[in-house]
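For reproducibility, we list the full input for the magnesium ion complex.
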Amino acid sequence: SPSPVPKAEESNISVYVRCRSRNAREVREASGVVVSTMGHKGREVVLQTGPMAISNKTYTFDRVFGAESDQETVFDGIAANLLRETLEGYNCTVFAYGQTGTGKTYTMSGDISTAHDVLSENAGIIPRTLVSLFKSLEQQSDFSVKVSFIELYNEELRDLLVSDPSRKVRIYDDPLRKSIAVQGMEERYITSASEGLKLLAEGSYRRQVASTQCNDLSSRSHSVFTLTVHMKTTDPSGEELVKVGKLNLVDLAGSENINRSGAENKRAREAGMINQSLLTLGRVINALVEQSPHVPYRESKLTRLLQDSLGGKTKTCIIATISPAKVSLDETMSTLEYANRAK
Ligand code: ADP
Ligand code: MG
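The corresponding predicted structure, in tokenized form, follows.
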């Protein structure tokens, strides 16, 4: 009989693209549409980089979401599966990566308000994950869920769950557990989706208030919303098992923070214009994809914070968000190249 065909090893990193429609400004400035998401099998993005079709550039990803894809479609296509993996005991991460104004926050958080406990149709991945998580846990008798919510700006961490902005959060190596630990970080146990939504709203509000005081904070900071789930189960022999899974939902700084000034631009680097965490994240992902023996986790706070969720037995999704307009063509190309290298 024929020997079974070996299954190709499944990649731990999935890469998606989401392209919004042109915004009012792009329409007003008559900036043409240069991105098509109607390509082959919903997996291609075609960029019109010049006047002739011959100069079109085609990129292929795990799936491409066009402007017609609503929030529910994006959640079902990306995060629902990752949530299942989390409940199996994996550490998982979703990153939104892209130029400021392309929909990272819309995709990750969107409208987080509820009416009579029902989410808005504009609710993004985090609120939908909270609702779906507690629905899945209805079958479980013994579990706990905790939330943390961190902001990273200029390689400094700030806890979005505490009101005292001066409270220090510090990452350090935990030699006993051979992992990293975060000192001073608030972790709140929640027992329902609405408790989680309340923490999300509180933290998002703190982020918003701070960004009106500091102009570039909103485009230059990262936010990391983390759910840690403990589940106690009994295996068929009656032995008790504890499964622990973690899901990190990350709204990254605008990609123009490494693109426009150029990663190799020494002057920009010295002026602190390069976002160290965003740059290092790209290098860490490339090292993981290339199975390099050295993964530079230690070179940024973001990659240290997420170290136990990147590489090894973990699952990662990257959602590259782009604008379809010609004015953004250069940034869009850089974003797609970054995403392409993560495959
Ligand atoms: P970013 O976080 O990347 O800077 P935002 O998420 O704030 O961008 O999006 C910028 C604006 O565009 C917001 O008003 C947002 O509601 C809107 N927007 C982004 N993506 C979409 C989309 N797919 N559908 C509808 N509106 C969107
Ligand atoms: Mg944003």
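Residues 104-105, 251 surround magnesium ion (ligand 2) (CB under 6 Å). The two ends are 35 Å apart (CA to CA). Both points were considered when choosing residues for closer inspection.
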